[in-house]
Specification:
This protein is mainly β and 420 residues long. The protein is built from two helices and 31 strands. Strands 1, 2, 5, 8, 9, 11, 14, 15, 18, 20, 21 and 22 form a twelve-stranded antiparallel β-sheet that branches. Strands 3, 4, 6, 7 and 10 form a five-stranded antiparallel β-sheet that branches. Strands 23, 25, 28, 30 and 31 form a five-stranded antiparallel β-sheet that branches.
Length: 420
């Protein structure tokens, strides 16, 4: 009887316990963002260090700890109901594990590894955006909030290191009591004179003053720049605290965004479209979602999801290859698009499909980059299994250089078919 009562209490509590993830329609929240303006490696915070250069936490086995960083924002905790922190994490040195964060000198909070990356996740290059719940009582109203990060000391070549491109704290509020911006998706219509694309218009207002920005996001199947291997989700993420890889943003009325769907994959279900409305106080409201159906007669876009992703995919160490399956007829293919995220692609040395070079190089050195490369020559494609590989980075002036890191889930291939 006691066990049954305890079970009922657990079930009841779990039904009201806060859920920590990306915002959903109806949420009201603020995002306090931080990134290393003066940092190297693409303005990143280095968490970790080479053995002998960084000092473990007071000589313990807790790992390499960064000095506290004070956030420049005045935190609003009035009517707050929950809080979380979003971390722009690059694996950087393979084998690095144990990333953790602590707020205002409270206890360490472990940052979870991405569940969709094979274990151990630190064997695969990745740039992910883990969301970590934090107790509200660990935050301070107003100024003076700080955070620290650490990684574990274990690493195969004695240099554990994650790069952090940004950190932002997300505070959720009671939407029924907190005065907040409101609005809705007012219209969705196909652009005149085209078979593709949608014109999105939003109505927005706030009792707190002017509207600062409207971000349009969609939930549908598409390439996975979020790095978690989930192809169907609300597609967007942050870079240096700014929203990116979403449908689009607008900073002044009328609140309209034109979405080019030329490379959006075919969808089994209607696309959901919502807006994040930001007022001049920084308060954000996510609108209800509206459905829109992708309808383009004579055109089809196939998303080919890569598999057999190599471990430690860094081009300085040699050629690396993945596979993807093509279901459509290659004779009907008009073009392909290659999409992936990388670090230091300025050192890449070619992409090959079925041993045919389709692209050479783009992007910066020692920085993050999101690629969308369109290739018009599709003669190398074949129905069924295809192989995509990266070339080995050569020596520069006789010296080894970094090479390109290809992040999980690998290089995704979109194939566009057009009827004659």
């Amino acid at each position: 009887m006691l066990r049954r009562a305890v079970l009922l209490i657990i079930i009841a509590f779990s039904s009201i316990a806060p859920v920590f993830a990306s915002p959903v329609p109806g949420d009201v929240f603020r995002e306090y963002t931080w990134y290393s303006v003066t940092g190297d490696a693409g303005q990143a915070l280095r968490v970790g260090g080479k053995r002998g250069q960084y000092h473990p936490d007071r000589g313990s086995a807790h790992g390499y700890v960064n000095a506290p960083i004070e956030l420049p924002d005045e935190f609003d905790l009035q009517l707050a109901v929950k809080a979380e922190v979003v971390i722009e994490k690059i694996l950087c040195h393979d084998g690095t594990r144990g990333l953790a964060i602590r707020i205002n000198d409270h206890g360490w909070i472990e940052v979870p590894e991405c569940a969709n990356i094979p274990t151990p996740q630190w064997d695969y290059q990745h740039h992910t955006y883990p969301v970590v719940p934090i107790p509200l009582e660990q935050l301070r109203a107003g100024m003076g909030n700080t955070f620290q990060m650490r990684v574990a000391p274990e690493q195969e070549w004695n240099w554990p290191q994650n790069l952090i491109n940004g950190v932002h704290f997300r505070i959720y509020y009671d939407a029924a009591k907190k005065p907040h911006p409101t609005g809705r998706i007012a219209s969705l219509r196909t652009e005149e004179g085209t078979r593709e694309g949608v014109q999105i218009e939003v109505e927005a207002s706030s009792p707190n003053g002017a509207i600062r920005r409207v971000d349009i996001i969609g939930r549908y199947e598409d390439v996975n720049f979020e790095g978690d291997g989930r192809y169907t989700q609300w597609h967007y993420h942050h870079f240096h605290g700014a929203i990116t890889n979403h449908i689009g943003s607008v900073q002044k009325a009328p609140w309209q965004v034109a979405w080019d769907t030329t490379w959006v994959p075919d969808q089994k279900e209607p696309i959901k479209i919502a807006a994040r409305i930001v007022d001049e106080t920084g308060l954000i409201f996510m609108t209800a979602a509206e459905r829109w159906t992708l309808d383009r007669p004579g055109v089809s876009v196939e998303l080919c999801k890569p598999y057999d992703i190599p471990k430690k995919w860094v081009t300085r160490s040699g050629e690396h290859a993945e596979h993807f399956d093509l279901k459509g007829d290659p004779a009907q293919a008009a073009a392909i698009q290659l999409a992936w995220s990388s670090w230091s692609p300025g050192y890449m040395n070619g992409l090959y499909i079925n041993d045919v070079k389709v692209f050479d190089c783009e992007g910066p050195k020692y920085k993050y980059f999101a690629h969308r490369v369109t290739v018009d020559d599709v003669s190398m494609l074949k129905r069924g299994r295809n192989t995509l590989k990266t070339g080995k980075t050569p020596l520069y002036n006789g010296q080894m250089v970094h090479g390109m890191e290809v992040n999980w889930p690998g290089i995704m291939v979109l194939v566009r078919y057009e009827e004659n």
